[in-house]
Amino acid sequence: MKHRNGEIWEFENHVNSTGGVDFDSDGGVILGLDGGTTSTICICMPVLPFSSSSDLPDPLPILARAAGGCSNHNSVGEAAARDALEQVMAETLVKSGAKHSAVRAVCLGVSGVNHPTDQERVLNWLRDIFPSHVKLYVHNDAVAALASGTFGKLHGCVLIAGTGCIAYGFTEDGKEARAAGAGPVLGDWGSGYGISAQALTAVIRAHDGRGPQTMLTNSILQSLGLSSPDELIGWTYADPSWARIAALVPLVVSCAEAGDQIANKILDDAVQELALDVKAVVKRLCLGGPDGNGSFPVVMVGGVLKANNMWDIGKEVTDCIQKTYPNACPIRPKVEPAVGAALLAWNSLMKETEGNCHDR
Amino acid sequence: MKHRNGEIWEFENHVNSTGGVDFDSDGGVILGLDGGTTSTICICMPVLPFSSSSDLPDPLPILARAAGGCSNHNSVGEAAARDALEQVMAETLVKSGAKHSAVRAVCLGVSGVNHPTDQERVLNWLRDIFPSHVKLYVHNDAVAALASGTFGKLHGCVLIAGTGCIAYGFTEDGKEARAAGAGPVLGDWGSGYGISAQALTAVIRAHDGRGPQTMLTNSILQSLGLSSPDELIGWTYADPSWARIAALVPLVVSCAEAGDQIANKILDDAVQELALDVKAVVKRLCLGGPDGNGSFPVVMVGGVLKANNMWDIGKEVTDCIQKTYPNACPIRPKVEPAVGAALLAWNSLMKETEGNCHDR
Question: The pTM is what?
C-alpha cells in the first residue's frame, strides 16, 4: 500500500487519541463521493448490517460529510482533480473519526468520467491510496445520482436537469445508455441553460419585431439591472458561463405562472425535451419491457426538476413519460448523490457477502 | 492637424519621389474601410466626377487595397483597434501612391460600432489623423455592406449571413432598424453558426435515439476525422470558436442536396429565420410602403447567402421575403463592403457638392 500524499493521510497516527470510534470492529465504513464541475462532496457511512435496502434505517447514519473543489479532469486537469478527490476523502475520514484501515469500500461518481480509460485512471489513483482488500468503484456522476433515488441499485433511469441536462439508464444485467448531456452547442434544450437561452432569445425577438411581446422582457431586464434588450447582447458576451444564464430559470417559471404564453411555450418545450431524453434511454434499454408497461424507477435530480408552486417542470416531465410508459415510477431522491454513491458501494458489498454465503 | 503616429504617416515625405500620382489636381481620393472581427480591409478610389451612381464606371477604378487585423474594439480593445485602422489606411495610401493631402473623404464601416459613443470615439481618432476639411463618416460594418449593393445610397435593407447574421435597414430620410445580430446564445438561428449547431445537434440526437438517422452523421464525422458522435462533445468543448462550427455549413448544404430530410429541414428553418430578420426590419421602417408593394433593395452578403448548385439559401430567402413584399429587389453586390464604404463617402460628397451648386 502506497500513500501518495503523506500529509493528507497523517491524521491516521492521531485518530485514536482524539476519541475517534474504530469501526473496524463494527463492520467498517464506506466512502461515497459525488464529484461535479463546481464542487465535490464526500460522505462516510458505516457498513450497515442489513441485507436489503428496504431494511435500511431512515435517516441513514451519515458519520461525516465534507465538500471540496472541482474534480472533473476536463475542467481542472488530472493533477488538480486527483488532489481534490484525495483531499475531500481524507477530510471526511478525519471528521468521521474512522481510521483509514476501517474503509471497506469507496465509490466515486465523478463528472467527466465517460470512457473506460477515465475510469481506469481514477481507479489507479484510488489503488495508490487504499489497501488492495478495499472495494473500489468509479462511475460517472449521473450513476451516483441514480443510486441516490434507488438506494444503491443500478436499475432504471436518472434525469438530471440543472445548468445542463442528461439522462442515464441501466438495466439489471448491466447494460447502460445515455441521452443528451452534450452541452448547449449540441442542443440540450431542456437544461436550465437551454430554458434561459430561449427566454433571452424571446426578449430579443420581441424587441426587434420578430416575435410577440412577453413579460419576460421586464422580468429579465429588471432582474439584471438593464434598461434595454439591446444591453442583453453585451451582458451575454461579457461572461459566457452557462450557470449565470441558467440562473434565470425561476424568472421564466414566474412569468409562465403569471400566464405569459411565451414563457409557457418555453417550459412546455423543455418538458418535451426532458421527457424525450428519458424515453430515448428507456427505449434503447427496453426498461419498460416488450409492451412498455413494465415498472422501472425514473430518478429526477437537479434544480430545474424541483417542485414549484404551480408550474412543476418535474411533474410535467413525469406525466409526459407516463403517456408512453404508464408504469414509470418517478422518484425525487431524499438523499444527495454522494450518499447514492455510498449506497452503490454498500449494495455491491452486500451482494458479494451474499455470494460468499451461498458459496459456503 | 495632428499626426498621432508619425512613423505610420512618414511615407508622406517620399511619395512624390516614388512616382505616385498626385490626385490633388484630379479631385483627390476617398478611403473606404470595412472593419470586421477577423480582418480589416481598406480601399482607395479617386473622387469620381459623376453626379449619379448610374454613371459610375464598371469596374470601379480602385487605386489600392490593403488588409489588416481586427478593428472591433469589443474584441481587441480600443488601442489595438485604433492601431489596426490607422495602419491599414496608411498602407492603402502608400500603395495608391496618393498623398495624405489628397484625401477628401474617409468612410469607415466597423463592427462593434453600435452606439453614438462608439461612433464619436472613432471619429475622434480620425480627426487626429486627417485635416479638418476631410469629410469623415463612421458606421457599423453592416452599413458598408448595404452600400456595397446600393452604390453608396443608404436605403433598403442588408442581410448579412456568415458566421453570424444580422439585418440592417435604412429609410431615405435617415431612420434605421436592425434585427438579429445578437450572437448564438440569443438565437441567431439563420447564421452559419446556427445552421451548423443544428446539424451537430441532429447527429447527437440520431446517435442517442432522440431523432431520426441522417446523412449528416457520416458527412460531419468524416470531415472532422472523428469515429463516433460521442467524440463531437469533446470536439465542441475543445474550441468554442463560432467560425470553426460555422465552417460546417457546406456539409449541411451537400446533405440537403443529396436528399437528406434533416439537412433540408435545417436549411428550410434557416431560410425562414433569415427572411424573418429582413421582414422585421422592413416592417418597422415601412420600406415596402403602406401596402407592402413598394420597391426597395435587399442586399445579400455573406457565405451562407452565396449561390450553391442546387440548394441556394439566398434565393430561398428572397422568395420568402417576396411572398410578403413582392417588389423587394434582391442584390448580390459585385463589390466588397470596403468599396461600399468608399461609395457611401462619395455619395455624401456628391450630395454636398450638388447642394453647393444649388446654393449658388
Answer: 0.86
